[in-house]
Design brief:
mainly beta, 10-stranded antiparallel beta sheet, globular, 3 helices, outer membrane lipoprotein receptor (LolB), chain A
């Protein structure tokens, strides 16, 4: 899926994010912060600034990361506008108000995720929170702030 078609009305987007991962193996959540940059048609930069500096980039459908992380990057950027999932072949979508619950249909997503919940800001129509429940029970919550689009 080409990101340009998903985010056709957004030329660029930057946002700060806080990622909190609750794992069944650890009593305390792992918290990371960073910055997301998207530029149309197909550039994504997911940069962690704390606790470690790690940057993942994808341009023209190619990433400097393994295929699972590349798939995750596409899904996260697609979730910026949950509208992109309404006609998805990859997920069953249920909408309750501003919350979209995605249940995987395809095996590559089913292997990793039980569900993905996307909460949309009613004013901007852009995701403000993405909650991914993994098959093993781990939960990753990504909250976006300081979102700027052009």
């Amino acid at each position: 899926m080409i990101l340009a078609s998903i985010l056709a009305t957004i030329l660029s987007l930057t946002a700060d994010f806080t990622q909190t991962k609750h794992t069944v193996m650890m009593s305390e959540p792992q918290v990371s912060v960073g910055k997301l940059t998207f530029r149309s048609p197909d550039y994504i930069c997911w940069a962690y600034t704390s606790p470690k500096k790690i940057t993942w980039e994808m341009k023209d459908g190619k990433a400097n990361v393994n295929p699972q992380i590349q798939q995750l990057l596409r899904m996260i950027v697609s979730s910026i506008s949950a509208e992109s999932f309404k006609e998805s072949k990859d997920f069953e979508v249920q909408q309750t108000g501003s919350v979209y619950t995605l249940t995987p249909k395809k095996s590559e997503y089913k292997r990793v995720f039980r569900s993905v919940r996307i909460t949309i800001d009613s004013r901007t129509r852009i995701a403000k929170r993405v909650e991914m429940t993994e098959k093993n029970g781990d939960i990753t919550i990504i909250e976006f702030t300081n979102v700027v689009t052009r």
